[in-house]
What we know:
By secondary structure, the chain is mainly α. 79% of the residues lie in helices and 0% in strands. The longest helix is centred in the middle third of the chain and has 37 residues, at 141-177.
Amino acid sequence: MNSRLTVREKAAYGLGAVGKDMVYMLSASYVLYYFQDILGVSAVAMGIILLGARVFDAFNDPIMGIIVAKTKTRWGKFRPWLFIGTLTNAIVLFVMFSAPPSMDAAGLTAYAAITYILWGVTYTMMDIPYWSMVPAFTEGGKERENLSTLARSCAGVGSALITIITMIAVHALGGMFAAETDGAQALERIGFKYFALIIAVLFVVFITITCVTIKEKSTVDMQTTTVGEMFIALIANDQAMAVVISIVLINCAMYITSNLVIYFFKYDFGGTSWYGSYTLFNTVGGGVQILSMMLLYPFLRRFFSSLRIFFIGLGMAVVGYIVLLGLTFTSMNNVMILIIPAVFIFAALGVLTVLTTVFLANTVDYGDLKNNRRDESVIFSMQTFVVKLASGVAAFVASLCLQLNSLSNEAVTEADQTVDFSLNVSESAKLGLRMTMTIIPVVLMIIAFFWFKNKYILTDEKLEEIDKKLRERG
């Protein structure tokens, strides 16, 4: 086997990351809205379901890792589970966004719980082998870490694409398949059903390309990672601890915003065509996020160290959130005003997504020198776990915000799709929504800044020193 991956293999692996994070972002950002706002499930119930499923993952992930490790087939141990997990997850995704509207509240709550937990189980069935198979077709630590970093960046692109296209597609598909007499909720419900179907199909196609292109070595052994091993690795590698906690803080901020921004446009910004403003906001924001990952970060890297760019990114996000909060107290008669701070926020998130992955890769070399062991499999599986945990915590915070501020469609009885939902919401509820989606992320970003500044020591010079010592050690 050649020691270096071909461009075709890298592209195929990255394409799989795009597909799987399109699915993940659709679930992470819109399941709460779909069940709570469109179908009327209790916000608190949804928060408990979403957080509980992430806690369940803490036990489910290691079990799936053991199952994959013990698998032996003519196609390898990873690709069969990668394909089976993708296929079943795609089916569950479609079923999850196809809830029968005739169910009562208890039935819909049970439907949400069962399908979301099944979605999490099947996603893990695919996600664990996807990341664990890297040693099966790469040679050496650096090549593996570089590929993992590339894949994480591609995953960020998949997430940003969902941010851009979801509501455009939902309303377009709802308009195509909903009856003329259906109201706004029915249009969105039907739109989400067919959009989930399209994303599910793309997911299967992308991962199939990955499975066909990537050839694993039959002799590779898989290191299974338990939660206990993750914590041991964190205790032994203080730099991994610094990065992981920063990832939790930044992703909690990001997912709180992504869960609540649609409620902001629907119930606060308002207007009869609120979704058009929301779509424009997300389209610009998602596009900026992708460009910041692909262009802004490489550009800034020519002039600044990775650490300096990280702090710049955190500062941009904080400024963006504060300006956004201030603008919400104006008349907000033009969405373009709100897009200005959104550019700062989304650009910062794009840069921070790349950097946290790069920093995590750096901790592998640090751990190798400090502890005489390369824990790349443990380190990168840890990132998957903490991102899931952050999305669960953020969804719970968002659900509490919705419950405390009584934000839902329950008070709206009109079937007319042109109803202005903001007219049914009190000013105090709007204030609570604004504060939750801006102030909490600001606090989390500031904590991340001081935590990282005090704990992370792997400067460019330090990394060169570590690399030199590792080469000397052989």
